[in-house]
Amino acid sequence: MRVKVYSLIVLLNSYITGLLLPVLSLLLIDKGSTLSRISILIGIYSFTVIILELPTGIMADLIGRKKTFCLSLIMSLLFSVVILLGDGFIILCIGMLIYGLNRAISSGSFEALFIDSYINEFGKDKLHVVTTRLSVLDAIGLSSGALTGGALPEISRKHLILTGTYDLNLIVRLILTVLIVVLAVVFIKETGANSVKEHITLKQQIKNSSNVVIKSKNIICIFISVFSTGFFFSSLETYWQPHFISLMPDDSAMVFLGVIAFLYLASAMAGNIISCKILSKYNPKKIYLVLRVILAIILIITALQTNMILFILFYSLIYLFFGMANIPENVILNSEIPNSARASILSVNSLIVQIGMLLGSFVNSFIINYSTIPNIWIIAAVIILISVIIIYKKLLLEQTKENA
Fold first, then answer.
1. Position 353 in a domain
2. pLDDT in the model for residue 194
3. Most distant CA pair in the chain: distance in Å?
4. I need a labelling partner for 356 at 20 to 30 A (CA). Which of 14, 46, 156, 379 fits?
5. Among candidates 373, 355, 353, 354, which has minimal Cα distance to 364?
6. Would 191 be classed as within a structural domain?
7. 342 burial level (CB within 10 Å; 0-12, 13-18, 19+)
8. Is 193 among the domain residues?
9. Mean pLDDT of the chain
10. Which among 329, 308, 325 is positioned nearest to 263, based on CA atoms?
């Protein structure tokens, strides 16, 4: 019963995030941003996450993951209200700051609670099953939310003329967030290994988590790799919508915005499922390295496309291989983390992704003035390949020691 309820919460939480995926850049422009300022707004979001990611992750381990997750939902509600009722660049900055706070507080808290509960019930050898379950639920929620999010603006234009084009996305998001709050308060329980058994100081928790990271080359390798993921996502998610619009033959193709978001998230889910099937047969570290190389190559191919249909195809393939790489990445990382420090270290992992995104946002906001979106994506692919070169020997050398 608990697994089913937790799964529903993951699904709904991902769904409300998906509602903004196909329209976020367009929503920001509609509310008063310019194309060049989008990177600044994303940078504010990323900077907020960077500052608060680790403290909130440690907070989840110290005061309880249920309380932390509920606080993140309150921040999610506040973000939707500010963006819905506000207008202008300053208000958008405040909204993205709150959005970053929501992201920082939520990362690691509920995921750690779910993973620990699953391990306690089914054992650590089922780690790849729970990571796949989380990834698939996340992908289903994001993809269905994105498909809905792409259709809602058209409903607003035809039937809700007194609202903004993208306001309905925010209104639906608000209603569902309230529902998630109710589910979380009523059904989430922290017992046994998931509850806070003893009060330890913030300093001691930081020391314990740091020791886990320092002693594990596998964790350090994953951190290096996810930094490139942050840079890659900053480049891709910020500019895919404006780039796609430049490839459209006419405005009638606008409906494809939601379809593309659905396709790439469905591709990521398919990648998760495929990866889970092959992990039982092959070494997760070798699979991970190969998939990251393929991911970079497909990103370069996507950047070179000038045909709308081919762009959609290769863009979806990016997420297929990203989804495939995501499972071995999570297995490698979570297998190294003790329950007591899981939320803290998962928050560090998310923090590093955000650092990569922040750096990417600032670099891209400069490059876009002198170059093109495809060139930005090629640079991101090179960053991924460099990270693979850096971790290749360390990751496989650690595997050799484990086998010995």
1. yes
2. 47
3. 68
4. 14
5. 373
6. no
7. buried
8. no
9. 83
10. 308
Residue with structure tokens 């959609």? 312
| Nearest Cα to Cα of residue 260 among 228, 224, 305 | 305
In sequence order, the 6+-apart residues with CB closer than 8 A to the CB of 69 are 60, 105, 106, 109, 110, 113, 184, 188
Q: What is the pLDDT of residue 171?
A: 93
Q: Measured between alpha carbons, how far is 296 from 293 in angstroms, rounded to an integer?
A: 5
**By the 8 A CB rule, do 10 and 134 touch?**
yes
* pLDDT at site 374: 93
Average pLDDT over residues 380-398: 87
- 115: domain CATH number is 1.20.1250.20
Count structural domains, the chain. Answer: 1
**Which of the two residues, 99 and 125, has the higher pLDDT score?**
99
In angstroms, the CA 102 to CA 96 distance is 10
Residue-range definition of the domain harbouring residue 366: 2-186+202-403
What six digits make up the tokens of 303? 């950047």
Rg (CA), the chain: 20
In a domain, 192, yes or no: no
Centroid of chain to Cα 321: 15
Q: What is the pLDDT of residues 249-307, one digit of tens each?
A: 776 666 677 788 778 778 888 898 898 888 777 788 889 999 999 999 999 999 999 99
CB 67 within 8 A of CB 181: no
